[in-house]
């Protein structure tokens, strides 16, 4: 599946995503990407509700949700923590998988924005970022991600989007 090109971080208006990117860059230092051990929750407490930590399995390619922040859980009306993506019946699972595979293969962050208004008639902008992590400094085996929604006032609205 083809995915749209990654947005530039300057195109993302969600402050938590911009803050996470700066944090990730700072932790990367001279490395291409940091390890999961370098991501200290106490450094980013205000970002934790939007945070998603995943493990990536290479063959077959699978995404395991190690941790899903409370804001993401509320907006998706479920907690994916402790589950593989392919167990969750998300209607966008193929797109999600393709995006994580891109991060895995390219060793680069990916930023995106989706306008969900066309599905339900409400102005909802969904922005996200996915940053690669590596235990050995070479292979991407984990990611930290964030999801931020703009213009949404109710969980039920997003739940309706996810059902379609």
From TrEMBL:
InterPro entries: DUF1457
Listed name of the protein: PAS domain-containing protein
Phylogenetic placement of the source organism: Bacteria, Pseudomonadati, Pseudomonadota, Alphaproteobacteria, Rhodospirillales
């Amino acid at each position: 599946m083809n995915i749209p090109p990654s947005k530039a971080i300057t195109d993302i208006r969600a402050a938590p995503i911009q803050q996470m990117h700066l944090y990730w860059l700072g932790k990367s230092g001279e490395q291409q990407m940091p390890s999961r051990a370098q991501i200290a929750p106490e450094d980013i407490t205000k970002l934790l509700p939007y945070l998603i930590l995943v493990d990536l399995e290479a063959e077959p390619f699978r995404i395991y949700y190690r941790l899903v922040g409370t804001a993401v859980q509320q907006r998706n009306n479920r907690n994916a923590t402790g589950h593989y993506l392919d167990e969750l019946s998300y209607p966008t699972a193929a797109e999600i998988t393709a995006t994580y595979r891109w991060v895995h293969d390219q060793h680069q962050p990916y930023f995106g924005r989706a306008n969900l208004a066309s599905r339900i008639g409400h102005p909802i902008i969904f922005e996200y970022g996915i940053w690669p992590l590596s235990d050995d400094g070479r292979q991407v085996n984990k990611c930290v991600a964030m999801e931020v929604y703009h213009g949404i006032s109710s969980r039920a609205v997003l739940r309706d989007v996810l059902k379609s």
